[in-house]
Specification:
The protein is mainly beta and 124 residues long. It has no helices and eleven strands. The strands form two sheets. Strands 2, 4, 5, 6, 9, 10 and 11 form a seven-stranded mixed β-sheet that branches. A four-stranded antiparallel β-sheet has the order 1-3-8-7, with no helix packed on it. It is globular.
Length: 124
């Protein structure tokens, strides 16, 4: 069992930055592949970024490439999402998720564990 708690969301103006954190407890964090998803009001949850458990290979949704960076600190059991050059369309509830496995995963149904989410609001 893995417990995930997101933090770092808030209100920011367009062009600004935020860093989201996801603190994990339970089984060994380093053995899990991790991902970030988001869900805007009235829409389905969508993939944002993923990172593998071993070499930390990363993969991104096209619209966030070059602006967002996913990273992990296995010593601190923490996943991060650095978000720069934020746009109003990035406004959403952001979730972190985890699963066992050696690859990266982009579909929500592939993840076993989820946090409660942290709200990001970008004003124009």
């Amino acid at each position: 069992q893995v417990q995930l708690v997101e933090s770092g969301g808030g209100l920011v103006q367009a062009g600004g930055s935020l860093r989201l954190s996801c603190a994990a407890s339970g089984r060994a964090f380093s053995s899990y592949a991790m991902g970030w998803f988001r869900q805007a009001s009235g829409t389905e949850r969508e993939f944002v970024a993923a990172i593998t458990r071993g070499d930390g290979f990363t993969y991104y949704k096209d619209s966030v490439k070059g602006r967002f960076t996913i990273s992990r600190d296995n010593a601190k059991n923490t996943l991060y999402l650095q978000m720069n050059s934020l746009k109003p369309e990035d406004t959403a509830l952001y979730y972190c998720a985890s699963r066992s496995g050696s690859s990266y995963y982009t579909r929500s149904y592939e993840y076993a564990y989820w946090g409660q989410g942290t709200q990001v609001t970008v004003s124009s």
